[in-house]
């Protein structure tokens, strides 16, 4: 028989059970005792005690029974399985062999992609193209396999509970390790499942862990070979050669050498906005060309230094009122705008009284004045997503959260030192951008309201080109709120601008629905409404501004020059923009009216089913894995970015958290950004082979679902990861779901930056990685840029 390593009551009971175990099972239990080595053909790695507990635990009194687990008496954490179902083996046969309680019913409505038995043939996959265009107006033609939403329904997930290390004595731990070491040496690295955690143990991550494997029945499948616990030389040699090849391809042998960026912007370096060489070569700066994006030919691979004395940012909502001075050590704006209550310096803090150029006595009173003047604007119901032009430190957007409104704020990186950085440090969404010569990176007809309070934009010049860009972005029936001195002052310059604006807005068919004053802040505002149809355009006596050509794509927004024309409004009951979205919050969960079964979704299903499956998938992943399974303290998370959003399901699933999510639709992905806006969320287009238009250290959590593996085809991951490091705050988290090879490569990069690896998980060809940035910075500075 088998001699137990320790002659205690538990091991003796096991020996008694082994006497009656079938010969086919004897080998597997023996393997469990020696560290979990199962049949060579099963291709899974499971800790010996977990397997041991499943097979014979009930007989010898180990742990709880399956019924106890079902009743909820077993405390466990669950990491959502995110594998592409194209890569998941068909489990239908093994399910028939498994005990009844180990079979899991399918719930196809909850799966973003079909199960393996429903896979299309290679030719059918090639022919199954989604009907969404990319941001440049070209069809992406992405098959269901390439779509990127991965995972199985919760019903199909395996629940395997393992004993905690804390439950073992030191002696037992040592013996377990001795028993495992010999078998682990021959495990197949390219198909192993692993869950690793950093040395930092958080309470949520320390309970009985659940391995996120959707193929429990595979572990119980009978073996056809009879090699016992001894590996074959052929298998050992084959595995070693594959391991070496995988190691080379995954970059395990690559060493990374990091240096500090050598830029005059120092701690505030934004590569595409601080490209001094490109800016010096500009022929003109008349249209703020020097404030636009000018990206280096090769993305930087250096690291931005930390400001001296950098601290963990103050948590929301306290951060709206004050931030650490050491994190954004700039005083020029306080000196220049202090009298308007933008920002003040007080000891170790920068204080934000909530004022602005047009609302010295507080943004909230100003916001409510707009509502009182025009009740139809209905903050947080009809009006949910707005654009704030020339936002300053974004107090307007910061207080809009009190009215359940999301505000996309932007301002240039100019003499108003670090205004957008102040906004982001406060926990308020904002980007660095300017209304210059190119379209803003948003689709057409998506903002419910656009706001400008002394935003210093000359709307009336050059045929109204800049105001016409706002017209492109404004939803039909949406409002433009203009609060500026020409509205309420009678100086000659103000009167001239008011007359020019009145003429321009009338020719654009914008109707002024209200002109009012905020008596407390002693300012005035004019509110205009965009038409819902083309009737006014067709009745104009002069075609000025002209209607855009039929060939013009109003949604194309990446590096597209501005045009002084008016896009025709959509016609037809099933066309986006032909009617207003659902009221908030109903619009978050309801499929947009213009997404129906006649279109093919990103993942290959009819678009409406695609949308619903995506939302169900991310609700499950967020609740079971991200919120409750990774040990993330969400009270310390405020600024979140989904680096590859599709329908906005990830952001929608985080609604109950006190966070906001910047949804990025990459320019080479299906153009689903209008759907994100339709459901009351926001985002923008971006090319991740370039730097993002934000300051360093501005996001608490970055999420990337099958982004990096796609980027590898276009640009080097090292530059992309350096950009991730630039954007992420110290102690911020990066969560990546991608193929196992890419996960391995990113993990190596993270370790080279001395980041903490919170968790890695690999199953087959898919993987999950959660890492945390530290305050480590290299000492050496790179050569002059």
TrEMBL record:
Residues 90-137, 159-183, 191-204 have a biased composition (Basic and acidic residues). It is a single-pass membrane protein; Single-pass type II membrane protein. One of its GO terms (molecular function) is methyltransferase activity. Residues 225-236 have a biased composition (Polar residues). One of its GO terms (cellular component) is endosome. SUPFAM superfamilies: S-adenosyl-L-methionine-dependent methyltransferases. It holds the Pfam family Methyltransf_29. InterPro entries: Put_SAM_MeTrfase, SAM-dependent_MTases_sf. Residues 62-249 are annotated as: Disordered. Belongs to the methyltransferase superfamily. This is Methyltransferase. It comes from Aegilops tauschii subsp. strangulata (Goatgrass). The lineage of its organism: Eukaryota, Viridiplantae, Streptophyta, Embryophyta, Tracheophyta.
């Amino acid at each position: 028989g088998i001699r137990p390593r320790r002659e205690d009551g538990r091991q003796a009971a096991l020996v008694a059970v082994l006497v009656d175990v079938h010969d086919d099972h004897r080998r597997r239990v023996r393997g469990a005792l020696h560290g979990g080595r199962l049949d060579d053909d099963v291709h899974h790695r499971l800790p010996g005690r977990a397997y041991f507990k499943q097979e014979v635990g009930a007989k010898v009194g180990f742990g709880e029974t399956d019924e106890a687990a079902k009743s909820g008496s077993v405390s466990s954490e669950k990491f959502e399985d995110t594998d592409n179902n194209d890569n998941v083996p068909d489990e239908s046969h093994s399910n028939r062999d498994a005990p009844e309680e180990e079979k899991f019913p399918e719930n196809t409505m909850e799966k973003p992609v079909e199960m393996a038995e429903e896979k299309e043939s290679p030719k059918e996959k090639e022919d199954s193209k989604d009907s969404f265009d990319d941001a440049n107006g070209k069809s992406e033609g992405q098959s269901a396999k390439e779509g990127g939403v991965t995972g199985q329904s919760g019903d199909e997930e395996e629940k395997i509970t393992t004993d905690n290390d804390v439950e073992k004595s030191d002696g037992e731990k040592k013996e377990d390790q001795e028993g495992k070491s010999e078998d682990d040496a021959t495990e197949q690295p390219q198909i192993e499942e692993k869950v690793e955690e950093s040395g930092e143990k958080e309470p949520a991550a320390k309970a009985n862990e659940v391995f996120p494997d959707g193929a429990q029945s595979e572990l119980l499948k009978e073996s056809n070979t009879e090699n016992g616990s001894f590996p074959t030389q052929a298998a050992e040699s084959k595995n070693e050669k594959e391991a070496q090849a995988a190691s080379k391809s995954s970059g395990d042998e690559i060493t990374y050498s990091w240096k500090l960026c050598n830029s005059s912007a120092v701690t505030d370096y934004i590569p595409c906005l601080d490209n001094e060489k490109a800016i010096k070569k500009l022929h003109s700066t008349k249209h703020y060309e020097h404030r636009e994006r000018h990206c280096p030919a090769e993305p930087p691979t250096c690291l931005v230094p930390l400001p001296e004395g950098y601290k963990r940012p103050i948590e929301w909502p306290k951060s709206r009122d004050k931030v650490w001075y050491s994190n954004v050590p700039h005083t020029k704006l306080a000196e220049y705008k202090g009298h308007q209550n933008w920002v003040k310096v007080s000891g170790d803090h920068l204080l934000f009284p909530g004022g602005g150029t047009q609302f010295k006595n507080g943004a909230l009173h100003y916001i409510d004045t707009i509502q009182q003047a025009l009740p139809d604007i209905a903050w947080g119901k009809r009006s949910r997503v707005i654009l704030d032009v020339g936002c300053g430190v974004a107090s307007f957007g910061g207080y809009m959260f009190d009215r359940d409104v999301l505000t996309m704020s932007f301002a240039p990186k100019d003499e108003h030192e670090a205004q957008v950085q102040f906004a982001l440090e406060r926990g308020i969404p904002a980007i660095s951008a300017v209304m210059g010569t190119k379209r803003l990176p948003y689709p057409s007809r998506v903002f419910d309201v656009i706001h400008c309070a002394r935003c210093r934009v000359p709307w009336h010049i050059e045929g109204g080109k800049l105001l016409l860009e706002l017209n492109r972005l404004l939803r039909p029936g949406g409002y433009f709120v203009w609060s500026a001195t020409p509205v309420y002052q009678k100086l000659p310059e103000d009167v001239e601008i008011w007359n020019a604006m009145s003429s321009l807005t009338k020719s654009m068919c914008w109707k002024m629905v209200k002109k009012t004053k905020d008596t407390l802040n002693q300012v005035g505002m004019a509110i205009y409404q965009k038409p819902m149809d083309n009737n006014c355009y067709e009745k104009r006596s002069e075609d000025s501004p002209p209607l855009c050509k039929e060939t013009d794509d109003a949604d194309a927004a990446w590096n597209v020059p501005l045009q002084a024309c008016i896009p025709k409004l959509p016609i037809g009951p099933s066309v986006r923009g032909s009617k207003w979205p659902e009221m908030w919050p109903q619009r978050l969960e309801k499929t947009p009216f213009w997404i129906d079964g006649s279109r093919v979704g990103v993942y290959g299903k009819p678009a409406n089913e695609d949308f619903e499956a995506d939302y169900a998938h991310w609700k499950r992943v967020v609740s079971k894995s991200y919120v409750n399974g990774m040990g993330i303290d969400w009270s310390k998370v405020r600024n979140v970015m989904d680096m590859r959003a599709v329908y906005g399901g990830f952001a929608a699933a985080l609604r109950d958290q006190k966070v906001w999510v910047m949804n990025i639709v990459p320019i080479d992905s299906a153009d689903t950004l209008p759907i994100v806006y339709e459901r009351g969320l926001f985002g923008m287009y971006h090319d991740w082979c370039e730097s993002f238009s934000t300051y360093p250290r501005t996001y608490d959590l970055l999420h990337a679902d099958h982004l990096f593996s796609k980027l590898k085809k276009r640009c080097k991951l090292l530059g992309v990861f350096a950009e991730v490091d630039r954007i992420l705050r110290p102690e911020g988290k990066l969560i990546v779901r991608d193929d196992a090879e890419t996960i391995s490569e990113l993990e190596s990069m993270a370790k080279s930056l001395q980041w903490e690896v919170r968790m890695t998980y690999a199953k087959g060809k898919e993987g999950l990685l959660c890492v945390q940035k530290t305050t480590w910075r290299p000492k050496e500075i790179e050569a002059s840029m």
